[in-house]
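Margin note: ligand = 6-O-phosphono-beta-D-fructofuranose.
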Amino acid sequence: MEQLNKKNAWKKLEKYAKTYIVQHSETKNNLISKENITLDYSGQHVDKLIMDSLIELANECNLHEQIQAMMCGKPINNTENRPVLHTALRAPDNKVIMVNERNIIPDIVHVRNTMKQISTKIRNKEWLGYSGKPITDVVNIGIGGSMLGPYFCIHALRDLVIDTLGFHFISDIDPHAFSRVTAKLNPETTLFIISSKSFTTPETLSHFQKALAWIDHEQKFNQHFIAITANVKKAEEMGFKTILPIWDWVGGRYSFCSAINLISCIAIGFEHFSEILAGAHSMDMHFCSEHFTKNLPVLLALLGIWNINFLNINNLLVMTYTQDLQDFVPYLQQLDMESNGKSINRQGRKIDYATGPIIWGGLGNHAQHSYYQLLCQGTNKIAADLICVRTFDDDVINKMCRAHKEVLTKGGNHGENPHNHIAGEIPVNLLCLDEFSPRTLGALISLYEHKIFVQGVVWNINSFDQPGVESSKEIIRQNNWIS
Ligand code: F6P
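Resulting structure:
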């Protein structure tokens, strides 16, 4: 494989980066709308020459072939020799995707149907606890990819959540974590979802033991515990009867559309959950078929590459202008940083260019009253994605979003005093969702998943393993630091 900095497009981009001048182009030339999401990249520091070279770079990195390889189940997770098929989780029932000479779609459809049955039963108050009373509260025990997606999802779609049930999360190992959540719950009417791809995560297993003791009716185990895991054997050994599988070709952080999100399916109902899948699938189709110049995930990824590798901006600030996206950033932090926080390439060699950015941010309105000063006048280089919802266009929140975009990109002076000068020059993407719905949420998830994949392809890294995390766990174990 040719080194990245020897590629023609890379050399051209290095040259442009030395001479480019920040220009503010016409918004109309930089607006791409697909799948109910519009990307306005007029706030980025790019011109046609730079965009053409970025597209050329994608072609030189064989992006098209890599997309096809992922979608059809080639083992692109090369270090673990696994396919990467989170897109199969939202594929139509009649699709055929072969893994080890077996079509995986019937297994996926079977799990979807089980999710439908379980969620309907609980919502209809037909799932009974040990004393015969219907379940009133569902608690997800899980961490990382087994919690961040469902937590974000259920809060994002809170307006659709059934109000006759309570939904709760227990994740970190804080000694009070379990008791704080269960203090107001009744063991007779509480159902635990033990969510862990590996079923070996100590935080999750420790909380499971607490839950077992708290329910204290082992003979009625099945009425109070559901397991979701790729390690079905281990869950069976631990006594679980209701087990929803995920598979080794779904990464933990890519499991938003899998049974890992069962708690959201119960909360919003299977029909709405299916709309999330439909939205994600339509973005998948856009990603595989659209020309790169109009392809939202590809454009987001390439603009990020320009900022990271050529303008030396090591972070991406994500500001959201709707409370529905309040928990998006922690979810995205794992998705992006666990995927692309790498410095060894696919061939096992150390690389000499920057890779995944530090992801940070939160609600845009709150930013103005906390860290906005640093955005206006600080010394760190920053790039930003601003995300808003079109249905708020007449509301202050969207006026604020667009005003932030203007100030951050163009800066300004308020009087002669240098203390009042704002340089601007922050490269900004403005992403506008037509509305906030399960469908657009699914599309947004897929958009960022594929953006991260594209960047991994260009950087020649495997975005689907996490060897650093595994090594750290092993170092801690060997040294007996947590006994
Ligand atoms: O330790 C990191 C990690 O393995 C993540 O990749 C994962 O999402 C999280 O822990 C939880 O893992 P599991 O779903 O196997 O409990």
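Residues 143-146, 196-198, 201, 204, 252-253, 338, 466, 469 surround 6-O-phosphono-beta-D-fructofuranose (CB under 6 Å).
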